[in-house]
Amino acid sequence: MRRLLHVELTRLRWRRAVLLLLLAVVALPVVFGVARAWSTTPPSAEDLARVDQQVAEETARPYVQKQLERCLAKPQRFGLAADDPDLQAQCESFVLPQREWFLYYETLDLVQERDETGLAVVALVSVLLLLAGTTLVGHDWNSGSMSNQLLFETRRTRVWTAKALVVFAVSLVLSLVVFSSYWLALWAAARSRDLPSSTGILVDCLQDGLRGALVAAGAALGGYALTMLFRSTVATLGVLFAVAVAGGALIAVLGIDAQFQPQTNIAAVVLDGADYYVQVPDECFTDRPPPGIACDEEKVLPAANGSIYVGSFLLLAGAASVLSFRRRDVP
């Protein structure tokens, strides 16, 4: 088995298409992280000075000062109390132009990044590794080298297992390094800007990266297993595309709950639980809904349920792939 693993690693190093995909796995998250850090950069001192001057000019306009006088004279019209000791400050904050009116910038929030961009990076890397897994073994079938490999090792289960271990291990290690570096870089950026960046937040992000690496490695393994089953990269990608389109349409037509949708279950695995919405009875929208009716529109899908959902498809594809490889003739 050790020799088989070494051979498969060597074969992976010499697959240019696979190396390009692995390079994209590293490069695209870097670009994504740099873009997020750049788009959330705080305004410079020059920008703040320019905005403050604009605020001062707008504040000095006659109609603005007139509106302020109306607020102080009749605060009830502005929803304020006349006996409020801070009436002057309340009217100024309500009427006078504020800095945020003229200057908007997005703050780097690691908690929000986990639910949005972090999940998007995991999805992107998973797709690239799926392509790498199917491309690696697809070349063996297209070139006819699979039959030559079986001349040196006739035990097909060992051959299948060796290829699967290499695909899974390389994908897991690479994606784990990429995700950990991604979160460490964003955490360092947030810390340098004096934003919320406690050690607990970093640990949560790194745990998301670990679970995301398992999902990405599972995607690579699934692509490999399906290609060993269909013996064609094109067939594998075609089937996956058809299932994604037809499955999404079928779920939408049948009105199946979001807990059975693939994206919800993958999000539950990566984020250690995912929120999803369910349709509630019309009685819930009355003033007094009948007792015993569940009116909570938002539910939480645990990570364990998502893992069982994703793992079941991966196990099914792997089992079918192994059985097919053992019994079907190899041209």
From TrEMBL:
Annotated keywords: Membrane, Transmembrane, Transmembrane helix
Annotated TM spans: 118-139, 160-190, 210-230, 237-256, 306-325
Protein name as catalogued: ABC-type transport system involved in multi-copper enzyme maturation, permease component
Species the sequence originates in: Nocardioides psychrotolerans
Record lineage: Bacteria, Bacillati, Actinomycetota, Actinomycetes, Propionibacteriales
